[in-house]
Design goal:
Helices cover 16% and strands 41% of the residues. It is of the alpha+beta class. It has one domain. The mean pLDDT is 88.
């Protein structure tokens, strides 16, 4: 039985285009789990794929962007913002850059 997703193919394609425009992301995989889109990426100077960003469909046309926090006391997803699909690129553009860890 195929998994149910709330993501439309055009929305996933838009995220793929944002990732392709980010020159710090060498390769990426997208995994859709219901309302959640996990972005796995291979960045420059990286030894493997990491899942640092996820986007959740919050409501019609609104998406919750979260990044993974690697601080020992947190080690969990932290919410960044609820944005439109177009504005998810404001966060995707930071993947693979040190500025990503300044996003709060």
């Amino acid at each position: 039985m195929p998994s149910k997703t709330n993501w439309q193919p055009a929305e996933i394609e838009q995220i793929e285009q944002f990732l392709k425009a980010n020159n710090a992301v060498l390769e990426f995989n997208l995994k859709v789990r219901g309302k959640v889109l996990l972005i796995q990426h291979l960045a420059q100077d990286s030894l493997g794929f990491s899942t640092d960003l996820r986007i959740t469909r919050a409501a019609d046309g609104i998406f919750l962007v979260e990044r993974y926090c690697y601080r020992g006391s947190i080690d969990d997803w932290i919410p960044l913002s609820e944005v439109t699909l177009q504005n998810t690129n404001n966060y995707i553009a930071h993947l693979g850059h040190l500025s990503f860890f300044d996003l709060v």
